[in-house]
Amino acid sequence: MRLFPLRFRCAPWLVAAWFALLAACSNSPYPDSGGAKEGLRREDGQPWRVRYGVASEDPRSLDPQVSYDSVSRRILEPVQDCLLEYHPFKTDPYELRPCLLAAMPEKGERPGGGTIYRCELKRGVHFHDDPCFKDGRGREVRAADVQYSFQRIADPKVECPVFSVLQDYVEGMGEAYERAKKTGAFDYEQAIAGLKVTGPYTFEIHLKQAYPQMVYWLAMHFTAPVAREAVEYYDGKVHAGKARDFFRFHPVGTGPFRIAEWKRNALIRLVRNPQYGATRFPEGGWGADQEELLRPLAGGALPIVDEVRLTTVKESIPVFMLFRQGYLDGMGLDKDSFSSLMTPARELSGKYRERGVNLRRYTEPSTFYMSLNMEDPVLGPNRKLRQALSAAFDAQTYLDVFLNSVPVVAQQLLPPGIAGHQREFRNPYGFDLAKARALLAEAGYPNGKDASGKTLELNFDIAASSAREREMAEFEQRQFEQLGIKVRVTENTFARLMEKLDQGSFQIASGSGWMADYPDPENFFFLKYSKNTPPVGKNESRYKNPEYDRIFEQMAAMEPCPEREKMAHQLTAMLAEDVPQILIFHRSAYALSQPWAPFVQENPMLEGGMKYALVDPELRERLRERWNVKPVWPVFVLLGALVAGGVLGFRSYRKV
Amino acid sequence: MFSYLIRRLCLSVPIVFGVMLLTFVLFFVVQSPQAMARKVLGPKATPQAVENWLQNRGYDKPLLVNTVPGRPFYDSLFFNQMRRLASFDLGRSDVTGRPLKEVFAKGVLPSLLITVPAFVVGLVSALGLALYLVFVRHSSVDLAAALVCVGLMSLPSMAYVIFGQYVVAQQLNYLPAFGFSLEGGSAVRFLVLPVALMVVSGLGAEVRLYRALFLEEMGQDYIRTARAKGLSNAAVLMVHVLKNGMINLITLVVASLPFLMMGSLVVENFFGIPGLGSVLFSAIQAPDFAVVQASVFLGSILYLIGLMLTDLCYAWVDPRIRLQ
Lengths: 656, 324
Fold this sequence. Notes:
The complex is a heterodimer of chains A (656) and B (324). By secondary structure, chain A is α+β, with helices and mostly antiparallel strands. Chain A is 32% helix and 17% strand. Chain A is built from 21 helices and 21 strands. In chain A, helix 3 (143-154) crosses helix 5 and helix 18 runs antiparallel to helix 19 (562-578). Chain B has 324 residues and is mainly α. Chain B has 13 helices and no strands. Chain B has helices spanning 2-29, 33-41, 47-56, 77-86, 100-135, 140-154, 157-171, 186-218, 221-228, 233-256, 265-271, 276-285, 289-317. The longest helix of chain B has 36 residues, at 100-135.
């Protein structure tokens, strides 16, 4: 005899199935567990170490001669070693050390003027194994590969973004570019005159004039050796029925990792290069607080982790969620997550401190400012007026309101860490409203009015594409209008603002700034060099000061020394007094890392420094399980709601 | 029917041409190629780099007619773009140089994996609920449902996504807040939450709309006849109201079918689904004008296809309509 109808007898099974489904569910964003649960092990029996990170978008190009945006560089850095590299711990001042080169380049005089850098490659460094090579085995890196890279820089079809700079210094580079433009194709059989291969592992770089900054270019991917076979093999065409990728998406590098998998718009997986031996962990240079953590690693093999997984996450909210769940090893703080993670005292909130999350703040070698047009008939000849405008702008409040007080107020053009930066220096025309009013009166505009009683009117050009940018512009406008003057804000598209800056058709322009290509004062002071006026350069203020130019030219050609620093101080003082721009901030940011992935290096010239990254996968697995417990009560609530809804619906149905 | 189809296809030609013209004006006249280059290359770009970028993409050609001696008049931006679009050559990404045919082809499947289930589940649920509400119309349940539906309609889709991720993925830890995979059973795990949120976010508006459509049918004479014959309420609803209401529904439903391919901008971005919505979002951010232009063009073509399908379905489901 059946005690219950069939649907009631099925109920226990349905509930059991429901719980089985719940048990199988997981909030992990990864299809697998990164080797932790699969028991994947390294050759030495240790657990497989995966480092989880995010990329805000897909890399645009992984071609070493093209890659310029930070996302692409972040992925290229672990894949492609450079000739030199930044020391991961020495940031004040920054220091270079050999990477693919056996030693730092030897500098010599070039007959007829200029400089020669003699370089020697390390022996036994190989490109990654790849089908583009004979037998699929990566061949040894030779000096000819550096020649090929320099040729690619000059090839118009490659679109190297730094060609314009290098052509001014490297002998024959501009000529090679022009020849290719004329003929429509670059002749790779003809060497660049300024890159002489003197042996299988040795080469010389011939510069037309002294340019000590050349060593920094050797620490960038643009000059990194590239295998010609790889570029020719990965041509994006179909060969023997099989489509090959483009070289810019399939780099064949020499670095500590190789790209094992790239799911477009979703994931990039980098796996350790087992043959890697070009560099080792530094012997020292870190702070005392890191001694215990890093001493055991000194002189050790790199990379430390076996795999790096970078998930493409375009929105900031999911990044914060994944970090909280323990599925990301680190994250940068943005305005959305700032209030949840930080206390008003700019410390990590209690919940995250208890979890053992690490917090670091770092300042990038960058400076942001508003440009004042020195060729404008009102602003140009009136230094007091420019000084008054500068003194009227409260940069700290601007940072408090819009940027969570994270960046540092800029007192000078040079950011911290760059030789010549003066810690104690204070902008003589920093925010001081009383002083600003006095300066304005001295400028001929007491209370903002000229001699005829007419209010001074100035134009302020901004690039506005969002409500936030408009709010920022309104704030800036109000700051200036405290002086009693009238400021008209003109909203432009980004391209139109660039055009205005190029043409000099503005009075005050927002959004100017510079992020260092290399940590040298020349890379900032050239922004006010008269020969660098747009459209050829970035002296958007059109600042022309023969004395400034003279000192700049002298300083730019000098090797780092105390005298050079003195010159940098002189240039800083000139800019402070002439005020061709209103300084705002040096960009800073906070970064967080999980307890199992402590911070190792914090050099902002490196794009992540993946080869130095550490991780404890066992601790991560334990904490992830603890942080992601699935409660059972919502299942009962949901079942109850379904039953109640069903009963209610059925009763309504019966009533009709 | 066949002659109607041919006629509609012929009529589509000038419309497609109009779309191509409009796309050209939007992307090459409203803003100059130089402005595009400046945006793509960023503030550090030199004039030489801008010129080289334009030349390598053929954007340095005259806008409408080439008057350079020795060059054919049609070697201009306008003619080249028209020729390219007419042959459905989507070109290459301005930023990555990747062929757009490949970019779009790879994005279609992930987009369909969320939009098709969301569409089917959403449609079935909305139809079922709408029929039920018609059945219990003017009761307290109907009133409560109206309030809930208006509430659901009032929330922006972003709110559903953030709330869903916060509750289901972060507080309850049942499903992933982010991720995508096509491998094995894990694919379902990544799709459940985005699909469920898409269904819920569209449910309020759809239920109200379908309910209104069905209520209109309820007042018809044939319904009175059916009731007079002694048919049960359920039979009247499921057989007569649903079938006749479908004619109106087709207009709404079929036209939206081709758009399922274009994915969802918000859901794909927040859940990391590498579909076409995500591709378009990246292109707008980059900015990659070639991708945006191709998306606008494809969207217009899909819209035309949707309208044509709607007309054909009309004739198919309603014998009173003749396509002549």
